[in-house]
């Protein structure tokens, strides 16, 4: 049977130095020659199982220390050097492992410094948001990942692209889909471009939603997807062909700084165009007005999902035919934010969306139920919020279901125009903030962090309700 071999020279050298031994002394204790130990320390010879056992017996060395100590540091260092700030200095994996092996304390120091840097960057962002809300513009330079650049650009502008919406409406009319848009799109793809759409079972596409095979001209869709998501994937394929000119015109207008950011944005605009095709503007706007923006009525009328209908509500900003300026936030149960958008841009300064008391977080305890709240900010601004969980792609029995929650909101001044105001008590207002770091509400039981604008109130004689008392 072959022996398991481990190259851990820097660790052996560190153990020897910690014990104050020379190579000759340690070699004698291990019953090997000093030259062989020298080769081990230079990673030119492996540590065999027998040598590992001798190290553990003679010098009381923890075998886990030799076999797995640096794995965590190397993985975290890889994340550090993936930061755009260090992208130009990105070393190869081998070099990262060497740092973690040879100098674990140095590696830990780098990780601590990086965490401190990220913490300070987050605080500066919070302060910039606070100053912007008070009318003091700031320009904090930062290096953004392509995805962050795309999200920042799209979240900060109205979620309406006129050229795409108008072209999608014309394309829908030309298709004459009747009550079966999916069949009409599949027929168009096959007739005009020779593309055949096929659904494959989970085991055939275990990690993909969609795959286009250029050789056989077939579009494969995962069996994990709901019928609504399959329709969106087919629509995305169609609009990237039929609406290519309009999509690229909007991309040019957004003027992203990198090719990668442009590629990500193209996917987002294709998703927008697919929604515009599935729910043509004029028909959707008229139905939304009649139904008082009831998302469930809209999803049934257009045969789409709750998430798709809610997304479309944030796009109703055609001049002269504008709907309520809704905004949208999607999070998972760990608080990660996946999507933010708004008919007039996501109201980051006024609403924030980071308060743990928002219904979007409570929705996870009541899957499928719609939670409606009137929330009030510290400055008196009030919003109507509608929250509900969403089911992601279906897994197999052994997989945990992916679930996120969607918050649809608008200024409270528009509440009476919606069905969600019916039965909502006017005195039932939830006091929230933009985010814990910017909120100065005293005695908040939900507070998760101290505010950056106040010093902590450390008093041995008094303890407030919050875990983070402040002056």
UniProtKB/TrEMBL annotation:
The record's keywords, sorted A to Z, are: DNA-binding, Transcription, Transcription regulation
Tell me which Gene3D superfamilies the record gives.
lambda repressor-like DNA-binding domains
Q: Give the superkingdom in one word.
A: Bacteria
Q: Residue ranges of the HTH cro/C1-type domain?
A: 12-66
Note one Pfam family from the annotation: HTH_3
* Family of the protein in this entry: Belongs to the short-chain fatty acyl-CoA assimilation regulator (ScfR) family.
In Swiss-Prot or TrEMBL terms, this protein is called: Short-chain fatty acyl-CoA regulator family protein
């Amino acid at each position: 049977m072959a022996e398991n071999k481990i190259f851990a020279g820097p660790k052996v050298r560190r153990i020897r130095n910690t014990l104050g031994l020379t190579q000759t002394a340690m070699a004698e204790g291990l019953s090997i020659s000093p030259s062989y130990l020298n080769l081990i320390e230079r990673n030119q010879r492996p540590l065999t199982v027998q040598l590992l056992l001798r190290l553990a017996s003679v010098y009381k060395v923890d075998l886990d220390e030799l076999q797995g100590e640096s794995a965590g540091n190397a993985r975290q260092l890889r994340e550090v050097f993936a930061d755009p700030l260090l992208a130009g200095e990105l070393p190869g994996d081998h070099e990262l492992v060497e740092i973690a092996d040879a100098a674990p304390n140095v590696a830990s120091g780098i990780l601590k410094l990086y965490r401190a840097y990220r913490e300070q960057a987050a605080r500066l962002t919070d302060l910039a948001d606070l100053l912007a809300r008070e009318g003091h513009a700031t320009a904090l330079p930062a290096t953004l990942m392509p995805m962050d650049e795309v999200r920042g650009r799209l979240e900060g502008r109205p979620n309406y692209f006129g050229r795409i919406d108008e072209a999608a409406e014309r394309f829908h009319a030309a298709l004459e889909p009747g009550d079966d848009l999916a069949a009409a799109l599949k027929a168009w793809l096959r007739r005009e471009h020779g593309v055949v759409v096929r659904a494959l079972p989970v085991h055939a596409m275990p990690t993909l939603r969609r795959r286009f095979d250029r050789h056989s001209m077939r579009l494969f869709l995962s069996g994990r997807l709901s019928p609504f998501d399959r329709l969106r994937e087919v629509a995305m394929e169609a609009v990237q062909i039929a609406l290519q000119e309009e999509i690229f015109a909007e991309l040019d207008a957004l003027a992203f700084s990198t090719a990668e950011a442009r590629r990500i944005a193209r996917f987002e605009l294709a998703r927008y165009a697919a929604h515009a095709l599935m729910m043509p503007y004029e028909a959707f706007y008229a139905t939304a007005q009649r139904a008082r923006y009831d998302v469930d009525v809209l999803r049934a009328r257009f045969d789409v999902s709750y998430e798709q209908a809610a997304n479309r509500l944030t796009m109703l900003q055609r001049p002269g035919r504008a709907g309520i300026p809704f905004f949208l936030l999607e999070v998972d149960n760990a608080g990660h934010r996946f999507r933010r958008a708004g008919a007039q841009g996501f109201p980051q300064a006024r609403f924030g969306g980071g308060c743990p008391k928002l219904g979007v977080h409570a929705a996870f305890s009541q899957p499928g139920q719609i939670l409606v709240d009137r929330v009030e900010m510290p400055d008196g601004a009030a919003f109507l919020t509608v929250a509900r969980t969403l089911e992601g792609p279906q897994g197999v029995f052994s997989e945990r279901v992916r679930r996120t929650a969607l918050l649809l909101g608008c200024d409270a001044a528009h509440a009476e125009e919606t069905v969600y105001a019916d039965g909502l008590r006017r005195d039932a207002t939830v006091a929230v903030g933009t985010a814990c770091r910017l909120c100065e509400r005293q005695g908040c039981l939900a507070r998760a962090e101290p505010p950056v604008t106040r010093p902590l109130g450390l008093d041995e004689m008094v303890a407030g309700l919050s875990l983070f008392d402040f002056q």
